[in-house]
Amino acid sequence: MTSVKEREIIQEQFKERMNEDELLNCMRCGFCLPTCPTYIESGYKESHSPRGRIALMKAVVDGLIEPDEDFERSLELCLGCRACEPVCPSGVKYGHLLEEARDIINQNKSFSLPTRVIRKTVFKGLFPHPNRMRNLTGLIGFYQRSGIQTIARKIGFLGLLPENLVTIEKVLPKVPTMKEMKNRPEQLSPIGNQFHRVAFFSGCLMDTMFLKTNDATCKLLQLAGCEIVISQNQTCCGALHGHSGEKEGSKDLARRNIKAFEELNVDFIITNAGGCGAFLIDYNHLLKDDPEWKDRAKKFAEKIMDVSEILVSVGFHKKVKLELPNQIVTYQDSCHLRNVMRTASAPRLLLQSIKGAEYVEMKDADRCCGSAGIYNIIESEMSMKMLDYKMVQAKNTQAATIVTANPGCLLQMKVGIEKEGLAKTMRGVHIVDLLLEAVKE
Amino acid sequence: MISNNVKEKLVAIVTKENFDDSKIERLSYSYDSTPNLQSLPDAVISPRNTKEISEIVKICNDNKIPIVPRGSGTNLCGGTCPTEGGLVLLFKHMNKILELDEENLTITVQPGVITIEIANVVESKGLFYPPDPGSMKVSAIAGNISENSGGLRGLKYGVTRDYVIGLEVVLPNGDIMRTGGKLAKDVAGYDLTRLMVGSEGTLGVITEATLKLIPMPETKKTMLALYEDLESAARSVSKIIANKIIPITLEFLDQSTLKVVEDYAQIGLPTDAKAVLLIEQDGALEVVNRDLEKIIEVCKQEGAVSVQVAQSKEEAEKLTTARRTALSALARLKPTTILEDATVPRSEIARMVSAINEIALKYQLDICTFGHAGDGNLHPTCPTDARNHEEMEKVEMAFAEIFEKAIEFGGTITGEHGVGVVKAPYLELKLGKEGIAVMKAIKQALDPNNIMNPGKVFAKNSRKRVVVSK
Question: What is the model's pTM?
Answer without folding.
Answer: 0.92
